[in-house]
Write a structure and sequence with these properties.
The chain is an all-alpha fold. It has one domain. The chain has helices at about 15-25, 40-55, 65-70, 80-95, 110-125, 125-135, 140-155, 155-165, 175-180. Helix 2 packs across helix 4 (about 80-95). The relative contact order is 0.15.
Length: about 180
């Protein structure tokens, strides 16, 4: 078969059509820093959650009942200790280990995004959203315990975000040491 005289049949790329299709796909993210879409206080809370996940990575897991008994209604427990208890028990509540990225990562994992939305819903008294988020991922037998810990973190979120002000600085020695 002779192909003389025919043009090369390579497919051409229509950029307008490609951009439209990519924009309609929720998995495609053009902004490389997903943290930019968060409010500043949620960005600081995310930094605290990630630091807590790094601290808890080498520590033993604890049961939800034990964490709730430890936290209880005592207000003398530091907010970062309550956050650590939540992070250490989150695997039991979800049925698998949650994924937390390093503090300097620009992307958000699904678990980080879900937990931030749950904390924000409880902080803003949006019980409909909080109920939906809980029912979508957490078994009924552990919901009450998890809500206790998350509500405690939500009520202490202002204190946690003030603690995270130092971690927002990318040149922070603490972040450099952890990220390396």
């Amino acid at each position: 078969m002779d192909i003389v005289g025919k043009q090369d049949a390579r497919p051409t790329l229509d950029l307008d059509k490609t951009m439209f299709l990519a924009a309609s796909d929720p998995r495609v993210v053009f902004d490389s820093d997903q943290r930019a879409s968060l409010e500043p206080k949620d960005r600081r809370l995310l930094a605290q959650m990630r630091l807590s996940a790094l601290r808890c990575r080498s520590r033993s897991r604890i049961e939800l009942a034990q964490a709730c008994a430890m936290v209880g209604t005592r207000r003398d427990i530091p907010p970062d200790t309550v956050l650590d208890a939540l992070i250490r028990t989150l695997g039991e509540a979800l049925g698998r280990s949650p994924r937390f990225y390093r503090p300097t990562a620009r992307a958000l994992s699904f678990d980080e995004s879900w937990l931030l939305r749950l904390i924000a819903a409880l902080r803003d008294d949006d019980l409909t959203s909080a109920t939906f988020l809980l029912h979508s991922r957490v078994p009924a037998q552990v919901r009450r315990s998890l809500v206790h810990l998350v509500a405690r973190v939500a009520s202490d979120s202002d204190t946690l975000t003030r603690l995270a002000d130092a971690t927002d600085d990318p040149a922070s020695p603490k972040l450099e040491r952890i990220a390396s």
